[in-house]
Design a protein that fits this description.
With about 110 residues, the chain is of the alpha+beta class. The protein is built from 3 helices and 3 strands; from the N terminus they run H-H-E-E-E-H. About 35% of the residues lie in helices and about 20% in strands. The chain has a 3-stranded antiparallel β-sheet. Strand 1 and strand 2 form a beta hairpin.
C-alpha cells in the first residue's frame, strides 16, 4: 500500500456541466441583437487575435472577464549573456479574473453536498 497514513477528505467544487461555444453563442444571442453567426465569428476571432498578442508578449485585457498573459520560470545564470531559451524550465498562461468575477468569487457561498 503506497502512501499510508490516515485517509483525508477535501472540499472540492461540484461542476454543473459545461458551456461550449454553441451554448455561449445562444446565450449571448438572447441578450443582444447580434446574430449567432456573427457572435461565433467574433469569438473565434478573439481567440486568433489573442494568440497573436500573446505571441508578441502582450497582456490581453478582456474587461470584466479578466486578463491573460504568458508566464515562465527559468534557471538562473551568473551572467545576463548566459541566459537563453535553454534556461526556461516551464511556461504557461496565467488568467487573472476581472473585478466582477473576483467579486462573484468573494461573495460565493459554500454548502456541503452528498
Amino acid at each position: 500500500m503506497a502512501g499510508g497514513g490516515e485517509k483525508q477528505y477535501y472540499a472540492a467544487p461540484v461542476m454543473n456541466g459545461e458551456w461550449d461555444i454553441d451554448r455561449l453563442t445562444k446565450s449571448i444571442e438572447k441578450i443582444c441583437t447580434v446574430s449567432g453567426a456573427d457572435i461565433r465569428a467574433v469569438l473565434y476571432a478573439l481567440v486568433d487575435v489573442s494568440i497573436d498578442g500573446l505571441d508578441d508578449g502582450t497582456i490581453i485585457r478582456l474587461g470584466d472577464l479578466g486578463s491573460i498573459r504568458v508566464t515562465l520560470s527559468s534557471e538562473g545564470r551568473a551572467k545576463a549573456e548566459e541566459v537563453d531559451a535553454s534556461c526556461i524550465k516551464k511556461f504557461g498562461i496565467i488568467f487573472v479574473p476581472g473585478t466582477r468575477i473576483r467579486k462573484t468569487l468573494e461573495d460565493a457561498k459554500f454548502v456541503k453536498t452528498s
